[in-house]
Amino acid sequence: MSPPAPNRFRWAWWLLAYAALGLGIIGVAVPGLPTVPFVLLSAYAAARGSQRLHGWLLANRRFGPMIRDWQAHGAVGAGAKRAAIASMAVAAVVMLLTAPRIWMAATGISIMAVVAVWLWRRPEPPH
């Protein structure tokens, strides 16, 4: 882990950590809004801006193992991968049904497809 950021940026890291965590929590219930990347971003920012939040995230029974797997191995569990890709598939269908122009839906779906391929290719935790 890198050393804490200089004090002048600590507030920005703190703000990013809490904002990302909030989006990650909202992502649990909203299809298409991913949880895992926002929680990982929150942990990254918290390590630089809020040691208390970082410690809480690492100790959290839901988020802690996921964060530790990412920090140690760059790994994402199979269940998280499946949930993220299923969520993106639901979001893609919603986009196809509601987008005013097909190119708008195609743009979002293309981005989600790239993210899904990248995510699926991540290693899984060794345990």
From TrEMBL:
It is found in: Cell inner membrane. The keyword Cell inner membrane applies. It is a multi-pass membrane protein. The chain crosses the membrane at residues 12-33, 102-120. Pfam families: DUF454. Signal peptide: none annotated. Keywords: Cell inner membrane, Cell membrane, Membrane, Transmembrane, Transmembrane helix. The keyword Cell membrane applies. PANTHER family: INNER MEMBRANE PROTEIN YBAN. This is Inner membrane protein.
